[in-house]
Amino acid sequence: MAKQKQTYSAKRESTDHALCEDKTPYRVNGHRSNSPKLHCIDLFAGCGGLSLGLEKAGFTPLLFSEINPQAAETYIANRAELNIVPVGDVYNLTDLDLGVLKTYWRYKGIGDIDLVCGGPPCQGYSGIGHRRTFKLDKRDIPSNHLFQEMVRVIRCVRPKMFLFENVRGLLNARWTPEGESGEIFKAVLAEFKSLTDYRVRWELVHAKDYGVPQNRPRVIMVGIRDDILPHWVQEPLCEASFDAPTAVESGFLPKPEGIPPTLVELLSDLEDPQFLSREATTHYVHEPKTAIQRFLRTTRDGRILEKGDKLTEQEYSAHADYIREKFAHMIENNGEIPPQFQTKKFAQRVFPRSWDENGPSLTVTSLPEDYVHYSQPRGPTVREWARIQTFPDWYEFKGPRTTGGRRRAGDPSLGIWDRDVPRYTQIGNAVPVMLAEKIGGHLAKILRHELSCKP
Q1: Domain spanning 14-260+434-452 has what CATH number?
Q2: Taking a C-beta distance cutoff of 8 angstroms, is the pair 161, 443 a contact?
Q3: What are the residue boundaries of the structural domains of the chain, listed by start?
Q4: What is the pLDDT of residues 65-81, one digit of tens each?
């Protein structure tokens, strides 16, 4: 860990993220326009964070599945120009359907699908979500078995690669309180390794190590088809067991490279001095001040949004005066919560203005009320929440802004079908776009190397 501390300190000194100076390159697109086209299928796609990062890396989604209509509406709204096959419940995507689609895609000149990716809903594995309210045998939570549906789709489609993403809690999750720690992950790993002709590797990665302004530890599993391996994979390859994650070491995932901006560097251009008198800020009140702000304010046609241009999703919560006083006290006193507001529940935190030598400790969840803005007595807006997940400002979100109670949590004994997924939750559940782009770019390099080696 000492090496990691030195790394962050050294990186911050060598890479200037100062508000008035741009020395950090952020790319609008990570792929070359003349590169071979790559195609993917995104399962459990949510609002589209993983897909967007993959698109930036050169992949085109052909099909996506998302059971929640609010998240699916967000996904579609941002890809109106793409002819993507939408699927709601993955259980309704039969092997026959996939066979018909494969035939159609071949007719359109598309060969093997390059990538099947997905992050099955994780509420049954994480320390937040269903376990906060319900105590169940996790074998009885339907969403905890969706990884088997992903394996079924992979087995039918036979893509060149697959990518599985989930929360860190999966590594220690057990089916019952009396069960063995890690037994769920062992079942997941065994299921993916049952796929013939694929080599599987996994790693616990931290988004901050790839330039994302939050910690966000995630389990990433990659499978590469055996006929692709000789063109890329680095030797030696040891067997990927539960105790030996080797995805980065063996070349299945990119090495950690990236400097996470601070939240001031990320969000300062969104600060409206008049926010107390407004329900929302609808136009930018500042020019972009940093490289990351210019990057996230870049439209799909390459224009950087300027002061006075339209700004979306910058709506403010209507806090009572005493709540604002509490927030102001926290900002002025290093996050200290006044005694009259202290509870045994999740404690609110003030967004840190800078990171310590370990880098970001923050992880975006579906609960924005857990956080207070670093300089203004209010909670984060949808746009600020999205920026921490590195969504560009042009990305629009559908559905209610927020909700609460059982309408948000759902009843795990029934599954994830009957619940709201408001905008904050969609964002909190997403894969950070920048992390997805870094991983997607690495996988694209493997595939293009394979393509270039063919006679």
Answers
A1: 3.40.50.150
A2: yes
A3: 14-260+434-452
A4: 999 999 999 999 999 88
